[in-house]
Amino acid sequence: MSESTAAETERATLDGDSDGRTRLFDGEPKTIQLTLDAGESIPPHTHPDRDIVFLLRSGAVDLTLGDETLSLSPGDIVRFDGDQDISPAATADSEALLVLAASSE
After folding, report:
1. Where are the domains of the chain?
2. One matching Pfam family, short form (predicted)?
3. Class of the domain covering 21-102
């Protein structure tokens, strides 16, 4: 009898009715659905020892990373180091998908 070492397949649906931050799966990597109303922002913060992928699905977001601000449009994807200050600010009702993976360094 052989043992299976394959990870269980999980499935989630991105829900446009999400309010704020919704964790889509338990465990690693952390996968978050972020919903911000126009004018809403998240204060500068860090995610130490994480590599982050930020995919803007809809809306418009000014994403401040350290001293740089990127204006994102739907479909834009940014990968960055979570050790720096991060602050997304929605300039329109927005929805993003974030993946926070343990840093490989």
Report:
1. 21-102
2. Cupin_2
3. mainly beta
